Amino acid sequence: MRRARAATDQPVFTKRRAIPPLVRLAFWLTLGAVFVPARLASQGAGTPTGELEVAITGVRAQQGGVLVVALYDRQATWLMLDSARIVRRLAATADSLTTVFEDLPYDSNYAIAVFHDRNANDKLDMRWFPFPKPKEGAGVSHDHERMGKPKYEQARFALLSSLEYQRISMRY
Length: 172
Hints:
By secondary structure, the chain is of the alpha+beta class.
């Protein structure tokens, strides 16, 4: 039969010894030296990447503001600026502007949306009467134009080579 332990008895487990800080540092440095290079090598190898050059024409530079250029890679996030793969803001200083998106994986579909943000509120301002129409200029890849929101399927394109070009005309 086991005897019940009294409150005054010594605990069964003794106090853990602290690991000296230099031993801890050596452990983490060794662990990092093993796993970090392997992770970096796996990210860079095997996935060819390319560049996408986007030329934007028809900008009304005299209105000032910035051009917001958003690159999307999924239909579910299309036209949601916070969910874009890459967002660039270019000062509207000329009638034509160019930007380059680098390190994009091949064999992926992308779509680009551009709008002229004159009042720096990060959204495309609309007028609603007599019918909905943007107050600020806008454009999408393939120069897709229609009444209402542009469709991702019509604006998407594939990155198939190391350098691709897209030309977008702004519509005001």
